[in-house]
Amino acid sequence: MTAPTKPPHSTVTAPRSEEPPVGRPLHGPVITWFDANARNLPWRSPDAGAWGVMISEFMLQQTPVNRVLPVYEQWLARWPRPADLAKEAPGEAVRAWGRLGYPRRALRLHGAAVAITERHGGDVPSDHAQLLALPGIGEYTAAAVASFAYGQRHPVLDTNVRRVFARAVTGVQYPPNATTAAERRLARALLPEDERTAARWAAASMELGALVCTAKNESCQRCPIAAQCAWRLAGKPEHAGPPRRGQTYAGTDRQVRGRLLAVLREAHAPVPQAALDRVWHEPVQRARALDGLVADGLVEPLPGGLYRLPLT
Predict the structure, then answer these.
(1) Nearest to 105 by CA among 62, 139, 158, 166
(2) Which of 15, 104, 166, 274 gets the highest tally of CB atoms within 10 A of its CB?
(3) Angle formed at CA 105 by CA 163 and CA 299, multiple of 5 degrees
């Protein structure tokens, strides 16, 4: 989600093909559009550094930008370096995560900060393999940090990018539910050869999917590659795969978990079972949600029926 901030110290980049990139006709228009239309986001500032980029990537998974912005600013103000977060209890990361949702991301980010402090002297590594070896870091996040923070050449495949590639190149409305090997091959084939251009392309194609080539109500009239888009040229055929259902929240275990965590976040001392019982009327679902939080390491049970955010 950011422009490169400094050259890489060590790179493990995507292999280069002997043929010119198949995406060359797309690169110029998309990057030019990005230069004129990119949002001014704090993790795109050179001052954000690799740690700021990493925090943003954790927070932006399944969470819109407007919800991330205030929490991101608070995190960087409190924990400007990985070592600052690493010395705190993991429960403090969960507390500061607030209502961003999917709070296991907070534990994973805390674990990554500990590993960065112990293995890399407190600096987010630039090497893709070292990033991938950090706890809680998958292929997408490793590629995103290497590309956006260090200007390296990696395919960065989030939901927005996958949708742009599916429509513009493959000619279908939506990508598969899970990333496929074919999508990864396509993303590598579309990468510009030049490292700096590849990093810019990664950010630009992501922004295009977020602002123009959206899941619903796409704005083809504003798209810089509409004239080349295989899906538009085919008449925008309807999605032929399984129905795409939006995620529900009301009444789910996720909602119950959120309410239980809200009580624990607001408390700075262990909370009795009775205080947690009051947040949800259905005892079986409430117990299942609490057990899940304990199993995920988000809640620590104590003797006497007390609970708290984890200290270790």
Answers:
(1) 62
(2) 166
(3) 145
pTM of the entire predicted model:
0.88
Neighbours of 191 (CB within 10 A): 27
As given in the structure block, the two tokens for residue 288 are 């299942």
DSSP for 42-82, written as a single string: GGGSGGGHHHHHHHHHHHHTTS-HHHHHHHHHHHHHH-SSH
Q: Is 300 strand, coil or helix?
A: strand
| Chain segment 15-29, per-residue pLDDT in tens | 554 434 567 899 999
Residues 86-130: pLDDT tens digits? Answer: 999 999 999 999 999 999 999 999 999 999 999 999 999 999 999
Give the whole-angstrom CA distance, residue 224 versus residue 222. Answer: 6
Active site residues: 57
| Alpha-carbon dihedral sign for residues 18, 188, 208, 197 | negative
